[in-house]
Structures are given as C-alpha cells and as structure tokens.
Amino acid sequence: TINIPTDAQEILSTLEADGRQAYVVGGCVRDSLIGRTPGDWDITTSALPMQVKQLFRRTVDTGIKHGTVTVMMGDTGYEVTTYRIDGNYADGRHPDSVEFSANLRDDLKRRDFTINAMAYNNSDGLVDEFNGIGDLQAGIVRCVGDARERFTEDALRMMRAIRFSAQLGFIIDEDTYSAIGAMADTISKVSMERIHDELGKILMSDHPDYVKRLCDTRLTQYVLPVMDSILTDRRCNSTLTLLMHAGNSPYLRYAALYNAADADNANAELKALKLDNNTINTVTKIVRLSKTSIDETEPAVREAIHMYGRDFLPLLMRHQTSVIAAKEETTGIMMTAARKHVEVINRLYEEIIKRGDCISIKDLDISGSDLMELGMSGPRIGETLNSMLHIVMENPKLNDKETLIAMLGTLE
Ligand code: ATP
Ligand code: MG
C-alpha cells in the first residue's frame, strides 16, 4: 500500500464524497512503490475543473485550460487535474487541445512512460493498465503505447526517458530507445529551457554519466554540439569519470561536463542552453581556471579570494579535487602531492575567512571619504584604495588608518 499524506487524502475523500473518482497519480505513485520520497503528490479526478473549484476553499487556476486546478492545503499546493485526452504538443509542453474524459484509463494512456502511468487510492488500490509495476520492478523506462507516436506528439519525452533512466538507474526499453535514435532530430523543436531542465536533472542524478545516452541516441548532435563532440571523442571517458566524482551542485556538474572543452566553447553552449547568467558565468570560470594553481601562501590565497570571489574559490577547489580523483581512477596512480596542495589551499582559505582578513576595499581601515578629506579627488581615490588593498593583502598588519595614511606619499 501507499502512504498518502493527510492533506492529499483529504482532497481524495472530499472528491469521493461528492461522487467523483479521484486518485494520486504519476511520479508520486512511482516513487512510493520504490521507496523514494515523492517530490509532489498529483491528483487525477473525473471531476471537472469548475467542480473542483467549488469543493475547495482555496484554489489557484494554474492550468485550468488543461484541466489543472491547484488546491491549497496550508502552504502546500496539490495539482488536481481532470482526466483528459491530449491533442498534439506543438510547443513540447502543453497539448494544443485537450479533451476531458470520464475514464481513468484515458488519462493513464496519455502519460509518457508505464512507470509514470499508475494511479492509486485507498478504495481501489493500484490501478496499473500498462504493467508499470513490472517495468518498475525490472528497472525499465518504456513508453505507454507506440514509442514513435509518443515522441511525435511530444519530442521532450525523448529527454525525459533518459532523465528518468538516470534518476532511477533504469535501462530504456529497446523499442523506446531505438525510437529516440530514429527521431532524435525532432528535439530541435523543443525549447532550450525545457532541454536544460532535463539535462540539469540528469546531471544532478545519481547517474550523471547517463548523459552518454543523450549522445548515443544522437540527441546532442542536433542541439548541443560542444557536448556532442566531448562525448564522442577520446575525451568521453575522462568526462564521464569526472562527472561521477563531481560535487553536488549544478555548477560543479556542468563544469565537469564541459571541463574538457575550450572555455569559450563551453560558454557559448551554456548561453545557447539559456541557463541563468550566474550559472553560465560560474561554470565558465571553473572550466577556465580548472588547471590554475594558487601559491601555498596566505597573500596568494587572499589575492585569489579577492580576484575570484569568496564563494567561488571553494567551488574551484572542489572541482580540482574531482579532477584529481577522476585522474586517479583512470590511471590507477595516486596523486598525493596534488591532493595535498588543494588541502593546503582549503586550509589557508578557512583561516583567512575565519580571521576576517582584509580581502576587499571595504575591509580596509580607510575609506574613499577619508581620502577626500585629505584633499584627494577623482579616479586617484579608487586607484589609491586598490594599491592599499594589495599592500594589505600582502601584509595584514598594515591595515590601520594611520599606517595607511603614512604610506600615501610612497604610493604611485
Ligand atoms: P518528478 O519527480 O520529476 O516531478 P514526475 O513523474 O512527477 O517526476 P512531472 O514532470 O512532474 O514528472 O509530471 C507528472 C506526471 O505527468 C508524470 O509522471 C507523467 O505521468 C505525466 N507527464 C508529465 N510530462 C509529460 C509529458 N511530456 N508527456 C506525457 N506525460 C507527461
Ligand atoms: Mg512531479
């Protein structure tokens, strides 16, 4: 049996008391059956959206045209969707037209994969029309119905198949897999935002190396040429190994993926993927500085923190650790010195941050207005503060107003 949370159960009971059918459906059923914690609990019902709205006090019309009403229970929203039959998905996201239905089977039939097409409630138990349970137990991602037809309706499903395989560690059914290969070119109809959503989920999964499937099915060939070339040539194995050692953040996973690329090419592809600017810039910077070695001295680490940013340096060190671990795995040779170097930099970083050493102009014991009072004006002020900062990062003892004023004459 599936343990439905109280709020979701209350929604089911309210709909049933009104004479409607209602089930939890899709991802939450799949995840519950394999002992994963569901992200959200979606509900499918024979009730029409207007009827759902009348039954609950607080609702939001999130996708009312497509039959979805969000029912608010406390702070949590539950998507309640009317049984439906979908028309084409020209935008790869929402079907152009939907038809409501009175049959649960119709609703299950429109869903992408057998493991996502199961419904459950306490009165009927599991409703599984397409042997989702068998595929779930065997670890198979398989389309509901004819794979080519399903990918023709919605090309994003090709990425979703690989995404679920990576999240669950599943294989992809042969027909489903060969249909992806046959229809890979149609992925170019899907928006880059939807593509990066799925790619991000693959990279953040327990099996980030399954990105190889994107390339084996030729999906990357049409939309992600840089990634495609990395994963089809000699850089492939080291990239996949690196991905398996990457830290648990999107920055680090993307940086591992593009580590073997030229930083400018990586940057262009991250932009094409329409990732947010922060991710684009951080990942590009990690790739660019991947091989940078910082001197094992406090001044050098302070300079690095100042130059690259306080939050960035730990990311870069984590990335370099992954690179070392991946190389060790590939070559079978322990890189003790390289590991020790990163450890030293990390330790110096911790000490500098803990002490609150001066690493930026605002940490100086003197300010722009102090310099103005001394009669300085224009760009000289910024230049002077900058020179002082570098002197203080070299020797923190000098960060004292009088000392800094005393050195004014000696500065350029
Ligand atoms: P996640 O844990 O990522 O939320 P999920 O299975 O809940 O996984 P969603 O994208 O939230 O996936 O979709 C919820 C359900 O809606 C799916 O389980 C599936 O039944 C159906 N679904 C979602 N997108 C599609 C699609 N493009 N084509 C067909 N069915 C879909
Ligand atoms: Mg979901």
Automatic annotation (TrEMBL):
Q: CCA-adding enzyme C-terminal domain: from which residue to which, for each copy?
A: 257-407
Tell me the SUPFAM superfamilies matching this sequence.
Nucleotidyltransferase, Poly A polymerase C-terminal region-like
| Listed cofactors | Mg(2+)
For this protein, the record's InterPro entries field holds: Bact_CCA-adding_enz_type3_sf, CCA-adding_enz_C, NT_sf, PolA_pol_head_dom, PolyA_RNA-bd
Q: A biological process (GO) annotation for this entry?
A: tRNA processing
Domain tRNA nucleotidyltransferase/poly(A) polymerase RNA and SrmB- binding: from-to ranges: 169-230
**Annotated keywords:** Magnesium, Metal-binding, Nucleotide-binding, Nucleotidyltransferase, RNA-binding, Transferase, tRNA processing
Q: Which residues form the Poly A polymerase head domain?
A: 22-142
Which GO MF terms does the UniProt record name? metal ion binding; nucleotide binding; nucleotidyltransferase activity; tRNA binding
For the keyword Iron-sulfur, the answer is no
Q: Which PANTHER family match?
A: CCA TRNA NUCLEOTIDYLTRANSFERASE 1, MITOCHONDRIAL
- Protein name (database record): Poly A polymerase head domain-containing protein
Taxonomic lineage per UniProt?
A: Bacteria, Bacillati, Bacillota, Clostridia, Eubacteriales
